[in-house]
Design the sequence.
């Protein structure tokens, strides 16, 4: 009976841990802060302590979507998130100017880009108050609807020729999600496209870029297949399972506490009697 | 000075009735159990602390990007493997105390289970696994050859 109870406890804890791990990934497509460059030269930080994540050696893909090389898209996968950074150098600052990143679950260059995700950055300047806004949309049925996940925007510190602006998104890799279309899976390939619309109606669209979400391809591990294991994630899952087992062991220890207390009382009783 | 009460105690034990001796034995056993419980809790909490450190570094909740130099790499591997080694050590002591408190000893089953769990925790990279393997092997060797010999 005791063994049965222990087995049930362990299974329950493991199940709870698995659920917790999945729940932590549910906030898929949560867009991070849009950051701006102060100096206009260096890529922004993801947060104050992780500046070096945007170093070239971490970046999976860095490409110039437009012939004019006004913009650079950088993408890399780290831990549970896909980081996307769009760097734009404004020569002019036109009204109704808009950049969009389209993401498709198709992994071919013929992707329609109407099935997954659209991140739009647009100029929302008013006189004397130059700001940019962004929209985080996902495909639902025939339309793009605003993602429920939190999104934030940040005003640009300085505008002018030669000043670079950075839009940064960190997208959680998800095991489960309320909206199927916003899932992103490790090992899967996605197509990216960048689109620019100027105020006077001129449009420029980049070629599709295919990115496999997973560990960075290096010379040593060029062949990254769908079934390759991400050891960091593996380690994380193992840690949570062990945490569950530790909790069970902790419960087992503290269940003896009442016995120890009664023993203490007994000792007092004996000492008083003697 | 300490000899007098000791002799007194010995004498008094001789003069004790059977019931009194049983009571004294029970008190001693109870005190021993209390100490074991305290030791189990302390070592369990220490193991928990090192487990949390291992979780933070190995599951990369805290990113360790010290740089590309050899020293930085060694530091990173040490920060990832030392918590695993110490987790194994304190957990083994905690399990040992717990089993002793219940009147049992640590068997191969518990030892193997702990070994497997610790090696899995160190699975984030090859070097971390290797260093953890060395550390854990040293601990087992120490416990088996030195502590085990003392018991003999």
Sequence:
């Amino acid at each position: 009976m005791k063994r049965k109870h222990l087995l049930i406890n362990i299974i329950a804890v493991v199940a709870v841990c698995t659920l917790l791990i999945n729940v932590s990934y549910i906030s898929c497509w949560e867009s991070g802060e849009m950051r701006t460059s102060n100096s206009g030269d260096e890529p922004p930080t993801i947060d104050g302590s992780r500046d070096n994540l945007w170093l070239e050696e971490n970046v999976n893909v860095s490409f110039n979507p437009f012939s004019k090389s006004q913009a650079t898209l950088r993408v890399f996968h780290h831990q549970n998130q896909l980081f996307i950074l769009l760097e734009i150098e404004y020569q002019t600052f036109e009204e109704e100017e808009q950049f969009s990143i389209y993401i498709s679950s198709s992994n071919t260059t013929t992707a329609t880009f109407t099935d997954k995700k659209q991140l739009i950055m647009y100029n929302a300047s008013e006189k004397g108050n130059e700001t940019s806004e962004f929209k985080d949309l996902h495909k639902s049925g025939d339309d793009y609807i605003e993602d429920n996940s939190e999104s934030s925007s940040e005003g640009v510190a300085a505008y002018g020729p030669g000043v670079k602006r950075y839009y940064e998104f960190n997208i959680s890799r998800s095991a489960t999600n309320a909206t199927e279309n916003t899932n992103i899976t490790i090992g899967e390939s996605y197509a990216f496209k960048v689109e620019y619309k100027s105020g006077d109606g001129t449009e420029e669209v980049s070629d599709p870029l295919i990115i496999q979400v997973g560990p960075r391809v290096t010379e040593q591990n060029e062949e990254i297949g769908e079934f390759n294991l991400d050891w960091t994630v593996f380690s994380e899952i193992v840690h949570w399972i062990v945490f569950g087992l530790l909790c069970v062991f902790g419960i087992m220890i503290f269940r003896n506490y009442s016995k120890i207390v009664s023993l203490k009382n007994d000792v007092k009783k004996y000492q008083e009697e003697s | 000075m300490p000899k007098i009460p000791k002799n007194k105690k010995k004498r008094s034990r001789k003069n004790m009735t059977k019931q009194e001796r049983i009571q004294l034995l029970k008190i001693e056993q109870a005190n021993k159990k209390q100490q074991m419980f305290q030791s189990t809790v302390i070592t369990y909490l220490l193991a928990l602390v090192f487990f949390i450190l291992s979780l933070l570094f190995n599951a990369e909740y805290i990113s360790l990007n010290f740089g590309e130099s050899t020293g930085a790499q060694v530091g990173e591997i040490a920060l990832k493997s030392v918590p695993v080694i110490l987790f194994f050590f304190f957990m083994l002591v905690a399990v040992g105390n717990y089993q002793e408190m219940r009147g049992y000893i640590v068997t191969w089953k518990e030892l193997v289970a702990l070994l497997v769990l610790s090696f899995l925790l160190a699975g984030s990279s090859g070097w971390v696994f290797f260093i953890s393997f060395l550390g854990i092997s040293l601990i087992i060797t120490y416990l088996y050859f030195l502590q085990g010999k003392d018991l003999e």
Summary: Chain A touches chain B at residues 50, 52-53, 79, 231-232, 234-236, 238-239, 242-243, 245-246, 249-250, 252-253, 256-257, 260, 263-264, 266-267, 270-271, 273-274 (CB under 8 Å).
